[in-house]
Specification:
- The structure holds two protein chains of two kinds.
- By secondary structure, chain A is an alpha/beta fold.
- Chain A is about 35% helix and about 15% strand.
- Chain A is built from 28 helices and 29 strands.
- The longest helix of chain B has 29 residues, at about 10-40.
- Helices cover about 70% and strands about 0% of the residues of chain B.
- The model of chain B has no long low-confidence stretch (mean pLDDT about 85).
- Chain B is rod-shaped and about 50 Å long.
- Classes of the chains: A alpha/beta, B mainly alpha.
Chain lengths: ~750, ~40
């Protein structure tokens, strides 16, 4: 029987009588904003009509290369029943499409007019391609020719003037491990990956509080917890199957609270297609909504902590036994003034007290957060705050409790864990001369013992003309970094660029002294299979799946190793893997957390490092005193300059920068939508559909106004298109870009 | 602060209800007609 939901009756659904009349209709008929699953499925079926058998086998035997929930086949470890979403289906075409005609790349001029997704549709990269300065486009090359062309300058370039960047895009732990090892073996400490742009602050902030910078519960803890808090995250779009988890959570009496500047329609109500009742009439998800202002999260959390203290809401028994910093937390709670907390958070005291009262009633709680918290210039402070808020009531280390930094890409969790970062070696060893010696001894070759550059620093160095070589796996820094115009300048100053990828992207078309494209296999094509780590720390094996192949593509892990051995044949000893199984063996030796990875050999096999929950029984073994550390943060005051708006980015119907739908069915908006409040629209004299121009210090953007339930003086534009506006501002601890800007907004002709 | 979303246009509301309501009413009517026949 369902438990009664904690807290007061949920807020009524917003909207007038008309909206409520539409809610009564099946399948969301007449609603502008709702997922169109069945229509999407038909489109995807048609798109993959030439490889339906292969697509079917990928879905049934592969580990999903979409978001970070990490299902195998059509199942996961969270619920019974089907685990399938349209993000995964949309990604299928990247796996099934044939190679493009190399002649298409012979002249890049016509391609420069195409958007990233249009370039993707050209087809898979079929063969190594080379473009020298002054040439109009790429020429096909053999692997030998292409590798030698890159190796020749690389032998002469100072390793400290080389940069190595990878994105996730279905990459495997074996690929990550090989890539960072190649960079280090060749003498470069400058190796980083796409987590720098999403959850870098989580690694720091969670480690500061708990000693481990990873999500500390399992996804199944979301179902049946008393309180599920979604903070700065739009799960309905980014990890769609979590809506199914939430459907079952609601059935078990979970209360769902959302804290976000925008009342995301997908979190309000969602139609889960594989649950009949939900597919027909939808499932109401959020019970409460707190429209915190951008940058006001810490203030709101501090207000909740202050209210908890006032009502004796801390779990003192847990804190006295397992935490340090309680006195400091209490002192700070007393010192914080409600007026400042209200001003900084943008919400009245009563809202913070209401949240605190619900939280205090909860016996269990899971906090899920994402880039709403991390993509800030105080991202680490935000993460410390939410971890402290969860700790204050002992919501870690037990069933139905935890802090879940929910990841985007399928294997992104594993990258840093196997050593793909400028400040940590494999096994989480900090980069320093002592640890460099340990790694050098283990690998039998010298590696640098100085910290390397994080991605934003790589780009700053490139812009200063200090980077001569960039090796990018799957990445498109041009589209994904803030301040596009400046990124173009930076990339053009890099003499040699290598792009290892499955498809063409816009950054490949920028000229250089030498630009080389190297075709990679997808995770489903790689002989010997591969592993990826999900957001709940589950390392799962995905096998090679029979199907059509790009004849000349090579495995992700193999290509950088081939290059390194071409640079210096002596690297054969340290990089001479015969297959991914040997890399898994090496990871097992080098990364203690990944104990068991060497044994993963068959379809669907997995190990979950740390178990279902970290810190069971309140043991924080990675903290010096074995206790978690409460770290209340001071709230920053974000002041929007007069006449300007606070602009942030959002995702539409898309999977990161990889696939993007023209319309976001959850909001009904197109990619060029400029989301704003009705109040702001009225003051600007614009209505939905009007062209508006945004101008920031970084650039200009013209889109169409969309009036939505958003905080006043806040604007949302889609990522990555809106990056032209974003100024280069980074969190100083994690070097995460904040992807925010202050901009003027005016009606455009 | 939070803002109420724009109202649903009456035309869309009528269209949506028509799409669902007309077949529904027709089905109910048919059921009644056939049920009534049983009592004749």
């Amino acid at each position: 029987m369902t438990r009664p939901r904690i807290g007061p009756p949920p807020e009524p659904l917003p909207g007038g009588a008309g909206e409520k009349l539409l809610e009564l209709l099946p399948f969301g008929i007449g609603k502008k904003s709702k997922p169109r699953h069945f229509l999407d499925m038909m489109k995807i079926l048609w798109e993959n009509k030439d490889s339906l058998g292969y697509a079917y086998r990928i879905l049934n035997h592969g580990v999903c290369d979409g978001c970070s929930l990490g299902p195998y086949g059509l199942k996961d470890n969270v619920i019974d029943g089907v685990h399938l979403c349209t993000s995964r289906l949309r990604l299928l075409r990247l796996n099934t499409m044939p190679g493009l005609d190399p002649a298409v790349l012979a002249d890049v001029a016509p391609l420069l007019k195409k958007k990233n997704e249009q370039l993707q549709q050209l087809g898979r990269l079929p063969a190594p391609m080379v473009r020298r300065k002054g040439e109009p486009g790429f020429t096909r090359a053999t692997w030998d020719e292409a590798l030698e062309r890159v190796a020749a300058p690389l032998r002469k370039i100072d390793p400290l003037r080389t940069a190595w960047f990878a994105t996730s895009r279905g990459a495997t732990n074996e690929g990550y491990y090989a890539f960072q090892k190649v960079a280090r073996v060749l003498g470069s400490p400058h190796v980083d990956y796409c987590a720098r742009l999403c959850h870098a602050p989580s690694s720091f902030g969670l480690a500061d509080v708990f000693g481990v910078g990873a999500p500390n519960c399992s996804l199944k803890d979301m179902i049946g917890t008393d309180l599920l808090v979604l903070w700065g995250t739009n799960l309905a779009n980014n990890q769609p199957v979590t809506t199914k988890y939430m459907h079952y959570a609601k059935k078990e009496g979970t209360r769902i609270v959302v804290v976000n500047p925008f009342r995301e329609p997908g979190l309000e109500k969602y139609w889960v297609p594989s649950v009949a009742s939900s597919a027909l009439f939808g499932t109401r998800l959020m019970d409460d909504f707190y429209p915190v202002r951008i940058g006001g999260d810490i203030a709101f959390m501090n207000g909740v902590l202050k209210a908890l203290k006032a009502t004796d809401g801390f779990d003192r028994g847990f804190l006295k036994e397992h935490a340090s910093g309680l006195e400091e937390l209490e002192r700070k709670c007393d010192a914080w003034a409600w007026e400042k907390l209200e001003e900084d958070s943008g919400l009245p005291r009563a809202e913070m007290e209401k949240f605190a009262a619900i939280y205090q009633e909860a016996k269990s709680a899971v906090f899920v957060y994402s880039m709403g918290l991390t993509q800030q210039e105080f991202g680490v402070e935000n993460v410390r705050s939410i971890a402290t808020l969860a700790s204050a009531r002992g919501m870690v280390g037990r069933e139905k409790c935890g802090v879940m930094a929910i990841r985007g890409h399928s294997g992104v969790q594993g990258g840093a864990e196997v050593g793909l970062g400028p400040d940590k070696f494999p096994g989480g060893l900090p980069v320093n001369p002592d640890n460099a010696k340990k790694i050098s001894d283990a690998w039998g070759t010298a590696v640098p013992g100085t910290k390397g550059l994080a991605t934003p620093h790589m780009m700053e160095a490139a812009h200063r003309g200090e980077i001569d070589f960039l090796y990018s796996i799957g990445g498109n820094l041009l589209e994904t970094m803030p301040d596009r115009r400046w990124v173009v300048e930076a990339l053009l100053k890099v003499g040699v660029r290598v792009h290892q990828d499955i498809i063409v992207n816009t950054s490949m078309l920028l000229e250089g002294d030498l630009v080389v494209l190297l075709p990679a296999m997808t995770r489903y094509e790689m002989p010997g299979g591969g592993t990826s780590t999900s957001t709940e720390r589950r390392i799962r094996f995905t096998p090679e799946i029979p199907g059509p192949r790009i004849a000349e593509a090579k495995a992700e892990w193999e290509i950088p190793a081939l290059l390194a051995k071409r640079v210096d044949a002596r690297h054969e000893k340290s990089l001479g893997w015969k297959g991914p199984a040997e890399i898994r063996d090496e990871i097992e030796r080098m990364v203690p957390l990944y104990k068991g990875i060497a044994g993963l050999k068959a379809e669907g096999e997995w190990v979950q490092w740390g178990g279902e929950r970290l810190f069971e029984g309140g043991r924080f073994e990675k903290m010096p005193d074995g206790r978690l550390r409460l770290l209340p943060q001071e709230s920053p005051s974000v002041v929007i300059p007069p006449g300007k708006f606070h602009v942030t980015t959002r995702r539409g119907k898309q999977f990161n920068s990889m696939v993007q739908g023209a319309i976001d069915p959850l909001t009904g908006n197109a990619r060029d939508a400029v989301l704003m409040s009705g109040k702001d629209a009225a003051e600007l004299g614009v209505k939905t559909g009007d062209r508006v121009k945004l101008v920031s210090d970084a650039g200009e953007y013209v889109g169409r106004a969309a009036i939505v339930p958003l905080r006043a003086r806040t604007i949302q534009v889609h990522w990555p298109e809106g990056n032209v506006l974003m100024t280069r501002c980074y969190d100083p601890i994690s070097m995460e870009p904040n992807f925010k800007a202050f901009a003027t907004v005016s009606k455009a002709p | 602060m939070n803002e109420t979303p724009p109202k649903v246009p009456v035309a869309r509301l009528l269209l949506a209800w028509g799409f669902v309501g007309i077949p529904l009413v027709w089905g109910v009517f048919q059921t009644l007609v056939k049920a009534a026949a049983l009592f004749k």
